[in-house]
Design goal:
By secondary structure, the protein is of the alpha/beta class. The protein has nine helices and nine strands.
């Protein structure tokens, strides 16, 4: 189980961790795009979509394995939007994933899924869609290393941020403080320099940013700007 000490260590003194989503990188130039981050990113976020749980297809364990081989020290934040989640665990757990996040809505037995991930030595995350309340997570929050709050409906990049999802972040932050648990709170969807301060102030420890980073001429400068905004907020 993650504790407050692990939470502190993972944040490494940062106000907020920034995880650019490779979904928004050009797949034919991915190595160049990662290089353009110039070491400013904390994590690399890999979105896996099955065309069933979400209306899009993207990547697979081969990409995670290739990233691990090319970037052996990278923190690979792998978010699988697949159903049933149980059927996909082994292939990603063996690919070099650092943290594997599954959806509450896509797992028949979420407690068992999270335990399998943790037993493999990989950090375990659980995610919820914008239309799912945070309270159903309560029975498994004690065993989560990360809770990912989707602030857009998953499936595509470039969507607008759903501000109401910040209430879930505030609730998760409150419960974590009250119970002494150590999960990180991450937000994904429509995040960029204009709203990262508000997101950090609500209690987020990490944010995923796709088109806001890779869609700009200087991705590393966008990350720096986001970090400054979060600190000011």
């Amino acid at each position: 189980m993650a504790g407050p000490l692990q939470l502190k260590e993972l944040k490494n003194g940062r106000e907020i961790l920034i995880a650019p989503s490779l979904l928004s990188a050009d797949i034919l130039n991915m190595e160049r795009h990662i290089g353009e981050l110039k070491g400013e990113a904390d994590w690399l976020h890999v979105d896996i979509m099955d065309g069933h749980f979400v209306p899009n297809l993207s990547y697979g364990p081969a990409l995670v394995s290739a990233l691990r081989k090319r970037y052996p020290q990278a923190f690979l934040d792998v978010h699988i939007m697949v159903e049933p989640a149980e059927d996909f665990l082994d292939m990603f757990l063996s690919a070099g994933t650092t943290l594997l996040t599954v959806h509450l809505e896509a797992a028949r037995h979420i407690h068992r899924v999270l335990q399998r991930i943790k037993d493999s030595g990989v950090m375990a995350g659980v995610s919820i869609n914008p239309g799912t309340a945070a309270e159903p997570l309560l029975p498994v929050l004690h065993m989560a290393d990360l809770v990912l709050v989707m602030s857009v409906n998953p499936g595509y990049g470039g969507q607008s941020f759903i501000a109401e999802t910040l209430d879930k972040v505030r609730w998760l932050f409150k419960v974590r403080s009250e119970r002494g648990w150590g999960y990180l709170i991450e937000m994904d969807g429509g995040v960029g320099p204009k709203n990262v301060a508000e997101i950090a102030a609500a209690g987020c420890d990490a944010v995923v940013a796709g088109s806001a980073v890779f869609g700009q001429p200087e991705p590393s400068e966008v990350i720096k700007e986001m970090r400054r905004s979060a600190q000011r907020g």
